[in-house]
Amino acid sequence: MTRLITICVTLIAASMHAFAASDKQPAPAGATQDAPPQYTSFTAAELERGFLALAFGSDLRIGARPLGIRRFDHPIHVRIFGGGSVDRMITMSRVIADYAREVPNLQLKETSATEPDVELRLIDEKDFQSALQLAFGAKVARTFVARTDPQCMTSVKSTADGAIVRSVSFIIVDKGDDVFLDCAYHELLHAFGLSNHDQRNPWTTLNQKRMVGYLSVYDRSLLTLLYDERIKPGMTARQVSGLLPGLIAERGLAVPPPQIRQ
């Protein structure tokens, strides 16, 4: 069976930028004190553009170029592998619970199984490069680090038809709460199938110019679309584009368009 490995990285933002959008609200409970506010109302066009930008493409590919959607096609079991000098196990479990509660179609559960669908490996920054070498080999790790200078990363292995087989995320624990939470939420988005980044999108956690550290309304909406039963692994951008307007309207994810006065 042909498999594709996609590697997604997180570059910790040096600064945060403010953008205008609808219904700006404070960061949700549990976010760090420095977390940015979130925007809660989006047009259908803003959601469609974000979905197509983030669900297709990635930083680094090993194997054939993917042609379509990648996502799990079964309930997702995730395991935390604790490590590093700061104990983040409880906080990481809370992040998983947040995703499970906010996006029920993930059918997400934490597990102790030896071969989970998603591995979350908590490590210190000094061990990051050696962890990459152990996971992917020295050559791939060197290329990866030289190209991206990453802080956290996720590897997504999928079949040729787009079904994710396994995701492995490496998350730094010893650079403070802001960095940890930003990486934790960011890398899980990658692990579930939103593999790309978009530096022009002012609302997603997958904009590497931003540090967020919580599951935003925008990213929750994109995952809700990705795990709708009508979005299948392997679907092309053209196929997905034909479905998105109806799914967004049916699920009430967008603000209604302004009424034009006659």
Overview in brief:
This protein is an alpha/beta fold and 262 residues long.
Q: Report Rg.
A: 18 Å
CATH topology annotation: Collagenase (Catalytic Domain)
Shape: globular
The residue fraction in helices comes out at: 25-40%
Which sheet architecture does the biggest sheet show? Answer: 7 strands, mixed
Strand line-up across the major sheet: 4-1-8-9-7-5-6
Q: What structural class do you assign from the helix and strand content?
A: alpha/beta
Estimate nothing, just give the exact number of structural domains. Answer: 1
Spatial separation of the terminal alpha carbons: 59 Å
- Tally of helical segments: 7
Low-confidence stretches are 12-21
CATH superfamily: Collagenase (Catalytic Domain)
Helix-strand pattern, N to C? EEEHEEHEEHHEEHHH
Provide the β-strand percentage band.
15-25%
Written overview of the protein:
With 262 residues, the chain is of the alpha/beta class. The chain has a single domain, classed as Collagenase (Catalytic Domain). Helix content is 32%, strand content 19%. The chain has helices spanning 44-54, 89-102, 128-136, 138-148, 177-192, 217-226, 237-250; strands at 3-10, 22-25, 38-41, 60-62, 76-81, 108-110, 118-123, 152-159, 164-172. It has a seven-stranded mixed β-sheet with strand order 4-1-8-9-7-5-6, sandwiched between helices. The N and C termini lie far apart (59 Å). Mean pLDDT is 86; it is low at 12-21.
Offer a few descriptive terms.
two-stranded antiparallel ribbon, alpha/beta, Collagenase (Catalytic Domain), 7-stranded mixed sheet, 262 residues
